[in-house]
Specification:
Elements: E1 7-10, H1 14-24, E2 29-35, E3 48-55, E4 58-64, E5 77-81, H2 84-95, E6 99-100, E7 105-107, E8 113-118, H3 119-125, H4 130-141, H5 148-156
Parallel strand pairs: 1-4, 5-8
Antiparallel strand pairs: 2-3, 3-4, 6-7, 7-8
Helix pairs in contact: 4-5
Length: 157
């Protein structure tokens, strides 16, 4: 088990958000729902305080912090995708109520930023042939949802 788990702050949607995320990723589950034991700014006794959950093997926490705090792009969750089917499935799931941004970035319905990235992109932009890497970067910069066929075409020139 990892020592570090990102904690996502929600006003009151922690359990709803955790269930949504768990529905999108294999090897995911709700691990524990902790309810308030006393009145707190987060809610009354027996209302959800913290949800511990696992996404694709990574631990997370979702906290009902009572007040709304905006998420922003300064932190995002990057997802390594094996193929276009995985890119499409995750993109479409996160786009439900969310907002596509650019270059594989998407903001979900809760305001959390995600990067949905095909594994091959990292290989292509790290290629020692700088012309190939540059073509791939140029192609990526024109995309919203990343398209592996388009990245491959740019790589081949």
């Amino acid at each position: 088990m990892s020592k570090i788990a990102p904690c996502l702050w929600f006003a009151r949607e922690a359990e709803e958000a955790a269930n949504f995320y768990v529905s999108l990723f294999p090897d995911s589950r709700i691990d524990h729902v902790q309810k308030n034991v006393i009145d707190t700014p987060s809610g009354k006794p027996d209302q959800v305080l913290v949800v511990s959950f696992t996404l694709a093997g990574q631990r997370f926490m979702a906290l009902n912090g009572a007040s709304h705090v905006e998420f922003n792009h300064s932190i995002s969750l990057a997802v390594d995708c094996a193929d276009q089917a995985e890119v499409d499935r995750l993109w479409n799931g996160l786009a439900d109520g969310g907002k596509p941004v650019a270059c594989g970035w998407i903001t979900d319905r809760y305001g959390v930023s995600w990067q949905i990235v095909p594994t091959i992109l990292i290989k292509y932009i790290a290629d020692p042939d700088k012309a190939k890497a540059a073509r791939v970067m140029q192609a990526m910069m024109q995309m919203v949802k990343l398209d592996i066929a388009g990245l491959e075409a740019a790589y081949r020139g």
